[in-house]
Write a structure and sequence with these properties.
Order of helices and strands of chain B: EEEEEEEEE
Number of helices of chain A: 0
Number of helices of chain B: 0
Radius of gyration of chain A: 13 Å
Strand content of chain B: 35-45%
Distance between the termini of chain B: 28 Å
Order of helices and strands of chain A: EEEEEEEEEEE
Structural class of chain B: mainly beta
Largest interface: A-B, 23 and 26 residues
Largest sheet of chain B: 6 strands, mixed
Largest sheet of chain A: 7 strands, mixed
Oligomer: heterodimer
Shape of chain B: globular
Low-confidence stretches of chain B: none
Radius of gyration of chain B: 13 Å
Number of strands of chain B: 9
């Protein structure tokens, strides 16, 4: 069965960076894009970007441009999301979410990680 | 603020039907598929509807989706207390060149 397992909660100081992992299992990792979504406490979901796990191509939301980097290690079937220059407003749960169709970007996500809470506080 | 507008909350009694709207524009809903997600408290979102009106396997037919012009609607019939959750629409916005979610709608089953 498809599973996405994310790394644990993080506490960071303003200005620091955080890197979250998302380990995939139960399917061919390189065949599907992986998206990342942010959800601040009590707030809506916010799309951050996607990674083509096959060729490593990425696309990022302008809201995070310059601060977010999504990468992958195909040998480990793991995607990573790094967010830099953290500020208090980045305190949120971050989710990885698989695109629904192989080799396509549909902006529809059929499997989600459990979420990783990042707290930014001095 | 999201480019997709949802009502903040809806409510209905058990067994009744409720609809949740998602209003956008020609750059998003008007020319792209819409997906809907259910997010139970403290959990990750779950895909309910994709391509406007299709249900993944395992999603009961109490959940339905439709789209007309620049608006989409999620319908839930036979409401259960377990349906209490936040519901989000999502699509692609060509002007923003980004995925976009609605603001979310909290469903209360009275």
């Amino acid at each position: 069965q498809v599973q996405l397992v994310q790394s644990g909660a993080e506490v960071k100081k303003p200005g620091a960076s955080v890197k979250i992992s998302c380990k995939a299992s139960g399917y061919t990792f390189s065949s599907y894009a992986m998206h990342w979504v942010r959800q601040a406490p009590g707030q809506r979901l916010e799309w951050m970007g996607w990674l083509n796990a096959g060729d490593g191509n990425t696309k990022y939301s302008q809201n995070f441009q310059g601060r977010v980097t999504i990468t992958r290690d195909t040998s480990a079937s793991t995607a990573y999301m790094e967010l830099s220059s953290l500020r208090s407003e980045d305190t949120a749960v971050f989710y990885c979410a698989r695109d629904r169709l192989p080799k396509r970007i549909t902006y529809s996500h059929d499997y989600w990680g459990q979420g990783t809470l990042v707290t930014v506080s001095s | 603020q999201s480019v997709l507008t949802q009502p903040p909350s809806v409510s209905a009694a058990p067994g009744q039907k409720v609809t949740i709207s998602c209003s956008g524009s020609s750059s998003n809903i008007g020319n792209n598929y819409v997906s809907w997600y259910q997010q139970l408290p403290g959990t990750a979102p779950k895909l309910l509807i994709f391509e406007n009106n299709k249900r993944p396997s395992g999603i009961p037919d109490r959940f339905s989706g439709s789209k007309s012009g620049t608006s989409a609607t999620l319908g839930i019939t036979g409401l259960q207390t377990g349906d209490e959750a936040d519901y989000y629409c999502e699509t692609w916005d060509g002007s923003l060149s980004a995925g976009v979610f609605g603001g979310g709608t909290k469903l209360t089953v009275l």
